[in-house]
Write a structure and sequence with these properties.
Oligomer: single chain
CATH class: Alpha Beta
Number of strands: 15
Strand content: over 45%
CATH architecture: 4-Layer Sandwich
CATH superfamily: Mitochondrial biogenesis AIM24
Number of helices: 4
Structural class: mainly beta
Mean pLDDT: 79
Low-confidence stretches: 118-126
């Protein structure tokens, strides 16, 4: 699948991997007969007009920066000097992360746009606002994220090397800013622990947390800095 050249560059031999979907602007150089074309995740177009147009616009942000490389040659990828993390799924599986975190993936994987709001329950007021803010920090647009499933490989972008934290013997709680994605059957739920001290700026600064449950791995970057 993908081969790491160093911590910030990966290469794909299209003759072995097949077509590669990647974010635009991530191709560094290539050799051989390679062709690039715009790519769109199926079902991410959205409905025209009114609310459908607004939702469609948010969904498009999950794929509008992608392209597909096809042919026979080697393509080198990197993005803004950030660290890259390769996830191989030779037996199949599932990776969920914001599209901005995905540098690329093998085109044989099934990609879909999923709603994050529907997974996190309702609730209004201050806690509801906090959930919305934290979700926005997670997904960039606050409503949708990208899910890949099947046999293949995915490359994620992060600040520094990723830490893989197993989930299965109890919940793992992560700072939303440090959260990158999940591998396997992992459900996420935002929690708000805001008190009056947070409201007046004297709290711990950790008012929003992300609780992860299920079976799999949570990927955490070595920084609270967003991309």
């Amino acid at each position: 699948m993908f081969e790491k050249v160093n911590s910030k560059v990966v290469k794909a031999d299209l003759g072995r991997t097949g077509p590669i979907v990647s974010r635009r602007g991530s191709m560094l150089f290539y050799s051989g007969q390679v062709h690039f074309a715009p790519h769109q995740i199926p079902g991410a177009g959205g409905a025209p007009g009114g609310m459908g147009a607004m939702v469609g616009s948010m969904m498009r942000s999950e794929h509008e920066r992608t392209m597909i490389a096809q042919g026979n040659g080697q393509v080198h990828y990197g993005f803004q000097g950030l660290a890259l993390h390769v996830i191989d799924l030779p037996q199949g599986g599932q990776v969920t992360a914001d599209m901005s975190r995905m540098l690329g993936y093998t085109a044989g994987m099934q990609a879909s746009i999923v709603s994050t709001q529907s997974q996190q329950g309702g609730g209004g007021g201050l806690r509801g606002a906090l959930r919305g803010a934290a979700t926005g920090a997670l997904t960039g647009n606050g409503m949708f994220t990208t899910q890949l499933s099947g046999v293949g490989a995915v490359v994620l972008v992060a600040h520094g090397e990723l830490i893989e934290i197993p989930v299965g013997n109890g919940p793992v709680v992560v700072d939303p800013q440090a959260f990158v994605g999940t591998v396997g059957n992992v459900q996420t739920q935002l929690q708000s622990a805001m008190s009056w001290r947070d409201a007046v700026g004297r709290g711990s600064g950790e008012a929003m947390q992300l609780q992860c449950n299920g079976q799999g791995v949570v990927l955490v970057q070595a920084s609270e800095e967003k991309l």
